[in-house]
Design a protein that fits this description.
This protein is mainly beta. The protein has a single domain, classed as Jelly Rolls, CATH 2.60.120. The strands form two sheets. Strands 1, 2, 5, 6, 8, 11, 13 and 14 form an eight-stranded antiparallel β-sheet that branches. A six-stranded antiparallel β-sheet has the order 3-4-7-12-9-10, with no helix packed on it. Helix 1 packs antiparallel against helix 2. Keywords: Membrane, Signal, Transmembrane, Transmembrane helix. This is Putative secreted protein. It comes from Rhodovulum marinum. InterPro entries: VPLPA-CTERM.
């Protein structure tokens, strides 16, 4: 199931009967602080993983990590903040590239996830969700998954193929753990993986959480969409 198609349907539901209601915004990352990681023999100056203080990221820190498998010399790269407001991912032909961007505070580890790293209330109102814009997606196929841990250790996720161009809104209602506590979020991770033999050049804009009050009719529609949740990539970030 295409993440963007589901998101577009859900965001359309959010507009029903909302009128002039104001939306609250929480910035997850505005991608202003420069950071780069790479997994390639041709880029020996780049580390494969990096934890960096970033005032523009939730919790004040951003972790990035990449892995690639294949025969190409130039493999997988992940770049934030160059230019400002952009997170870019690229990998070569005949390479499977994986990338993780994690927000779990300052734990001194770009790979492991600390579910107590944040203390974030994303509960909001019905209709809350993650929003970002796909600025570029050239040629190859890319799948993505949003993973979230609460401070009790509970985990939830939602994922699927990414479509090129336009805004993407992913409501919390589409995530696969109804018991998850969105008022005690301890860590957030965005995962991407190429799924073909063709090189991928992709970029997204700032990631936010938007909260929009929903009428009852939209709640019912979102309940239906929840049953269509895509099965995201289940490769966990190595701990």
């Amino acid at each position: 199931m295409d993440m963007k198609i589901l998101a577009a349907a859900a965001s359309g539901a959010l507009l029903l009967g909302v009128g002039q209601a104001a939306a609250a915004t929480i910035v997850i990352d505005s991608f202003v602080t420069d950071q780069q990681v790479g997994d390639a023999d041709a880029l020996p100056s780049l580390a494969q993983g990096s934890e960096l203080a970033a005032a523009d990221a939730v919790g004040g820190w951003r972790d990035m990590y990449v892995v690639s498998s294949g025969t190409a010399i130039s493999a997988t790269g992940l770049v934030a903040g160059i230019p400002d407001g952009v997170l870019a991912f690229n990998n070569a032909d005949n390479v499977t590239g994986q990338a993780w961007v994690t927000y779990d505070g300052n734990d001194g580890d770009a790979i492991a996830v600390d579910n107590l790293g944040l203390n974030l209330d994303l509960g909001g109102q019905p209709g809350s969700g993650f929003q970002f814009q796909v600025l570029r997606l050239d040629q190859g196929a890319l799948s993505a998954e949003i993973r979230v841990w609460d401070r009790t250790g509970a985990f939830t996720s939602f994922g699927g193929p990414i479509s090129p161009g336009g805004d993407t809104f992913v409501p919390f209602a589409l995530f696969d753990n109804a018991a998850f506590d969105w008022t005690q979020v301890g860590a957030i991770q965005f995962y991407a993986e190429t799924t073909g033999a063709i090189s991928v050049d992709a970029a997204i804009g700032p990631i936010t959480v938007e909260t929009v009050p929903l009428p009852a009719s939209a709640l019912l529609l979102l309940g239906g969409l929840g049953g269509l949740s895509a099965v995201g990539m289940r490769r966990r970030k190595r701990s």
